[in-house]
Amino acid sequence: MIVLNKVRTAVKHLTYSARGQYSDVRGDYQKVADTYDEYYSHNLEAAARQFRGLLPWPELARPGLHLVELAAGTGAITVPLAENLGADSVLTAVDISEAMLAENRRKTESGEHGVDYVVGDALEYLAAQPPNSVGALVCAWGVCYMNHPKLKRELTRVLQPGAFLGIMENRKGTLAELEAILLDVITDDPRLLRRAIRLELPKDGAYIARRIVPDNGRVIESLDAESGRTDSDTDDILAYLTKSGVASGYLDAIAPELYDDLLDGLRKRIEALGPRNVPIVHRYSIVTAHA
Fold first, then answer.
1. Beta strand 115-119 with 134-140: parallel, antiparallel or unpaired?
2. Are the CB atoms for 93 and 78 separated by under 8 Å?
3. Which residues of 27-38 are buried (b: 16+ CB within 10 A; e: fewer)?
4. Please, which residues have CB within 8 angstroms of residue 258's CB and are 6 or more apart in sequence?
5. What's the CA angle centered on 140, arms 134 and 145, to 5 degrees?
6. How many other C-beta atoms are found inside a 10 Å radius of the C-beta of residue 1?
7. What one-character-per-residue DSSP string does 31-86 give?
8. DSSP state at residue 253
9. Distance between CA atoms of 70 and 56, rounded to whole angstroms?
10. CA dist., res. 29 & res. 204, Å (int)
């Protein structure tokens, strides 16, 4: 029966994919906007600090710069960018979730430098920009939701020659221990799935440099790292999964009326394994470059 259920779930997923019925990442982020900083940004502050440390602040502070941040979220990167923005420069913060961007606005709009906030799809935003119009672009935790060939084409088109590009993203294998449990619960119960799940995690920094950085770009840094912890309480793991945004794209794929069944299945598996045997390990990559 278990094997049959897994087959049924796989067929449902393929059917939804063929129909273009994918889960709504925006909806999942809307729901976690008020808990995101506590659960996600706090646990990944070391990664964010590492990324900020690789940004060329004197270059980003030059006057008259059009700086774009994609997947700006609640502002972990937006805030220092705004604080260091040069005279006559413009910082545009783009995010698909209005609620996430509202948290960002709350932190940054009272600063000395204004920020333009754009609620919308990152690729659609780039497609609407004139060629050679962006002097610097950063994106932390967002390219996994984008079509990488399209992203590369748009970056090649909109970035000015020599423009700075900085990307940080979870890579394949991130949260593998937690994802394995989540996928087991979903595949064992075909009723749960109502949409297909679409994520495009890069393999590593070399992948980002090759598949996303413009072909004529010069890579400055390319590194792979990880940040992890363990919890002794099942409730803490479930709270992290449901309130941090790490399961965005997964949770919206679940039929709402069966959400409690999902949580019950997750709880039973985590408790059977022991919470400390389900580490929360983010494996991520950072690439910086000049176009």
1. unpaired
2. yes
3. ebbbbbbeebbe
4. 189, 191, 192
5. 95
6. 6
7. HHTTTHIIIIITTTHHHHHHHHHTS-HHHHTSTT-EEEEES-TTSTTHHHHHHTPP
8. G
9. 17
10. 25
Digitized pLDDT (tens) for each residue of the chain, 291 residues in all: 445 466 676 667 767 777 888 899 999 999 999 999 998 877 888 999 999 999 999 999 999 999 999 999 999 999 999 999 999 999 999 999 999 999 999 988 765 567 999 999 999 999 999 999 999 999 999 999 999 999 999 999 999 999 999 999 999 999 999 999 998 999 889 899 999 889 999 999 999 999 999 999 999 999 999 999 898 999 999 999 999 999 999 999 999 999 999 999 999 999 999 999 999 999 999 999 999
pTM of the entire predicted model: 0.94
d(CA 73, CA 141): 9
Q: Residue 78 belongs to what H/E stretch?
A: helix 78-83
Tell me which residue has tokens 């990944």.
44
Retrieve residue 270's tokens. Answer: 């985590």
b/e for 146-156, b at 16 or more Cβ within 10 A? bebeebbebbe
Q: Using an 8 Å Cβ cutoff, are 6 and 73 in contact?
A: no
Q: How many CB atoms lie within 10 A of CB 113?
A: 15
**The dihedral sign for the CA sequence 7, 11, 16, 17:** positive
Hey, which residues does 282 pair with through a beta bridge?
Answer: 227
What is the token pair recorded at 188? 């064992």
Q: Which residue, among 78, 85, 29, has the nearest Cα to 51 in the 3D structure? A: 78
* Core vs surface per residue 15-25: b (16+ CB within 10 A) or e: ebeeeeeebeb
Q: Which residue has the tokens 């400390």?
A: 276
